[in-house]
Automatic annotation (TrEMBL):
Gene name of this polypeptide: hisS
Binding site residues for L-histidine: 81-83, 112, 126, 130, 256, 260-261
Name of the protein in question: Histidine--tRNA ligase
Location(s), subcellular: Cytoplasm
InterPro entries attached to this UniProt entry: aa-tRNA-synth_II, aa-tRNA-synth_II/BPL/LPL, Anticodon-bd, Anticodon-bd_dom_sf, His-tRNA-ligase, HisRS-like_core, HisRS/HisZ, HisRS_anticodon
Subunit structure, as described in the record: Homodimer.
Length: 403
């Protein structure tokens, strides 16, 4: 009997995992520079948390959540994203009473029952960051700058799209104007958008079906409906981004697939694959809606697999020292391995016995950089013979001296 992995789930290992870790480490490095602290959030939450925060009529809640009852019949869900859990943690742990504001990040697997394709999985990983408690667009600008720095450092060809989707004051009038417009072009909308038109009309704007894209080309734009506060927020954000030389394009149809957003929304889109690799925005009502005090917030999440897919260069690995030894001095080989590892070196001890030639073949197979050759002479002298496997150069090194 043999088993296969579940569709949409994947094993991460080898080069792919090295790229994945490189992305994660790079994001973490920048989060450290911006003074974010980490939180480890549960993978499972009550399903209602996501229904209430992401929105009842979103694709995630309607079609993509892994929901199951616990033994008492309560509905639980594998988290489809991290923001809802972070908000829950902020409110439940009363962090608002402990800190003037909270800059926090999380990393881990997320689950969405989507149709798997390149860069789209049913279990994927996000590294997300959120700032709770600050309304100033300077934070939106810092978040976008942070992620721009990460993408630039990883040498990924991508562009930043921004938009403002207003607030509860200005969005209703826009929604009305949009629905009216959508009615007038309803003959050109796909079946899904015909439904969205009434339940979640903003989502029609980012439908990928060409006829829908054409139909919304002349749709009213949210930016023309922004109230003074939202307009000023958006203008300031752009001013700050310009100040920091962060390039961006305004995409008036960028609305995001989760209902909690207000004001700023942004995405980083890969030029190479045409997919969104990082996404985020502001959600100024969510904390209050989830039972906390009124608390503005803004955040983003990096899709780690997607970014890893685009990484071309990996940092050089530490050189590998491979110890090959005559049978009778394997005790000394073990000791040498210990000494080298204590110095912080990456060391592999030949587990296979046999001729030195055979062991050296193994060193090449394992892509070692150096062979550390050990025979009776080396043991009696307290030395090793170090062979550079790239150049073939060989020298004797006494263990009191550093390699
Ligand atoms: P999201 O746009 O749903 O936003 O997801 C963020 C990122 O996760 C996407 O840009 C993509 O890179 C990655 N992602 C999403 N679904 C998949 C999938 N099925 N397979 C692989 N990667 C995927 C959020 O989740 C928000 N919580 C972001 C946020 C944080 N907004 C404010 N704070």
């Amino acid at each position: 009997m043999s088993f296969q992995k579940v569709r949409g789930f994947h094993d991460l290992f080898g080069e792919e995992l090295r790229k994945f870790r490189h992305v994660s480490n790079t994001v973490r490095e920048y989060l450290k520079r911006y003074n974010f602290e980490e939180i480890i959030l549960p993978v499972v939450e009550y399903a209602q948390l996501f229904e209430r925060s992401i929105g009842e009529f979103t694709d995630i809640v309607q079609k993509e959540m892994f929901v199951f009852p616990d033994k008492k019949g309560r509905l639980l869900a594998l988290r489809p994203e991290g923001t809802a859990g972070a908000v829950r943690a902020y409110v439940e742990n009363k962090i608002y009473a402990l800190k003037p504001y909270w800059k926090v990040f999380y990393e881990g697997p997320m689950f969405r029952y989507e149709r798997p394709q390149a860069g789209r999985y049913r279990q994927f990983h996000q590294l997300g960051a959120e700032v709770f408690g600050i309304l100033d667009p300077i934070v939106d600008a810092e978040m976008i700058n942070l992620i721009y720095k990460v993408v630039s450092e990883l040498k990924i060809d991508a562009h930043i799209e921004i938009n403002s989707i207003g607030c509860r004051k200005c969005r209703p009038a826009y929604r009305e104007a949009l629905v009216e417009y959508l009615e007038s072009v309803s003959g050109h909308l796909c079946d899904v958008c015909l439904e969205r038109k009434d339940k979640n009309p903003l989502r029609v704007l980012d439908c990928k079906v060409p006829t829908c894209q054409q139909a919304v080309y002349h749709a009213p734009k949210m930016v023309d409906f922004l109230c003074d506060e939202c307009r000023e927020h958006y203008e300031k954000l752009k001013e700050y981004l310009n100040m920091m030389d962060v390039p961006y394009v305004e995409n008036y149809n960028l609305v995001r697939g989760l209902d909690y957003y207000t004001k700023t929304v942004f995405e980083i889109v890969s030029q190479e694959l045409g997919i969104t690799i990082v996404a985020g925005g502001r959600y100024d009502y969510l904390v209050e809606d989830m039972g906390g005090p009124p608390t503005p917030a803004v955040g983003f999440a990096v899709g780690l697999e997607r970014v890893a897919l685009l990484v071309k260069d990996l940092p050089e690995e530490e050189p590998l020292y491979f110890i090959v030894a005559f049978d009778e001095v394997r005790d000394y080989a073990l000791k040498v391995a210990d000494i080298l590892r204590n110095e912080g070196k990456r060391v592999e001890l030949s587990y296979k016995r046999g001729s030195i030639k055979k062991q050296l073949e193994l060193a090449n197979k394992l892509k070692a950089d150096y062979a550390v050759i050990i025979g009776p002479d080396e043991k009696s002298e307290g030395s090793i013979t170090l062979k550079d496997l790239h150049t073939g150069e060989q020298k004797k090194v006494y263990l009191s001296t550093s390699l």
